[in-house]
Specification:
This protein is an alpha/beta fold and 469 residues long.
Amino acid sequence: MTLPIYGIKEDAMSEYLQYFNEKCKKSKEMITEAKKFIPGGVQHNLAFNYPFPIVIDRADGAYLWDADGNQYIDFLQSGGAIILGNNYQPVKDKVIQLIEERAPITGLFSEFELKLAKEINRHMPSIEMFRMLGSGTESVMAAIRVARLATGKKKIIKMGGAYHGWSDQLVYGLHIPGTGSYEAHGIPGGCRKHTHEVYPNDIRALRKKLSWNRLRGGTAAVIVEPIGPESGTRPVDNNHNKQIRELCDEFDALLIFDEVVTFGRIGLSGAQGYFNITPDLTTFGKIVAGGYPSAGGVGGRRDLMEHIAAGIEGGKKRAYVGGTLAANPLSSAAGYYSIQEIEHTNACEKAGQTADRLNKGLEDIIDDLNLPFVAYNQGAICHLETSGTMFVKIIKNPLKIKEILKEINDRQHFMEEMGAAYMAEGLVTLAGSRMYTSMADDDSIIDDALNRFERVFKNVERPTTPGSP
C-alpha cells in the first residue's frame, strides 16, 4: 500500500466510543466478567469487536438486538452462514418439530443425512458422494487427507491470503500473502513442511511451484477459494480457476474448491457452477447446515470419497474422519430444509440484488466524498476496503520487517475503529470490511444502512502526513 491511512476524526471517534460506554453497559459488564473465564472474553473470533464485544440478545430477519436493547442491521449473518435471514420461520418450525419428535442427536443414521446428500448432488453434480462433518476446518482436513491418500503425494498448494480453517497444516499465509506463520503460533514447523503458497492470479508462480514439487514427490492437491482468498478480498481473474484446473490436470494434482462461503451464497451450484469448473473435491460449511450448528462437509468424485467411508474393511486404506456431532439430525434437517427454501424463495438472487444495491450506494458515497475507499461485491458478499490492511506488501528483508509489521498493526487498528463506528451507527459488519446480505434485506433497510455508512464516511479526515512506503 502506498496511500496513507484516512482516519476518523478524533472528536468523532470519541463520540463513537462514548456510545459503547453509555449505551452498551450490559455488554461491557458481561464481557468484563467473561474475560475471567474465557480467553479474550469471547468464544468465536467473529465476536471480537473494538472497543469490546457486543452481547447479542435477539435475532430476527435482518436485525440483531444487544443485551441493552440496541437494534442493529445485521450484515454479519453469522459470518455468511445465513442467507434466508435470522431465525427464518419455515426452517425453524421444521427444526423444532424434529427436536420434539426424535431429539437433536442420536448417534445413529437419520433420513436427513441421505436427503441432504441427494439435495447437494442435485445442485452440484460434481458431488457424487457427500460426507457431512462438524465444521469447515474439519472439511478441509478431510479433503487434504483424501487427496494425499488417493494420489500418494504429500504437498499441498494454497493461495496466499486464503483461509481454509485453522488446522496446523493450513494456518499459513493467512490474510496477507507471504506472512507465513505470523498469525498462528504453537505449531511445529514440520506440520507445515508440505504446505506451499503462491500469490493469487499468478499462474506462472503456480506452474513453477508444481514443477518444483514434481521433482520432490509431487503435489497432492491445489486448494482454492474460487472467488479469491479471504472470501474474495483478493478477487481472481475470471479465467483463473480454469487455468488452475488445467495445471492440476497437467501435473496430476487434485483440485479442491473451498466452497464454505460460496455454496448457497453465490448460488446453490456454488462458485463451481458460476465459473463452470469441475473440482475433484469440494469442502462445505456455513449454509450447508442452514445457519444451525455443526456445519461442514466434503464431497466429490465417487472414487475419491470412498476413501472416507465409515467402518473398517480389511486391507483397504482409509482416510479416517469422525465427529460425534457430525451429520446429527438437527444439522442435516436444517441444511436440507434451508436448501429447499433457498431454491423456492430464490434467496441467492434476492440477496445478490440487495448486495448490488448496497454496493452501488457505497460507491456513490465514496465518490461524492472523494475518499480512496473501494467497494465491490461478488453475489451476496460485499467488500468495503478502507484501510488496506490485507494489501500491505510483504518484503523479505529483515531491515524492513519491523516497519512492515507496524504498518499492518496501524492499518488493522484503523479497520477496528471503522468497525466500531459502524456498530455505533447500528451496523454489524465482519471486521469493518465485509458485509453479507440476506433475503431479509429490503430496499428500506438498504437505504437506512447507506445513510448510516454515509454518516461514518463524513467523519473521515484526510491525512496530512505523506503516504507509507
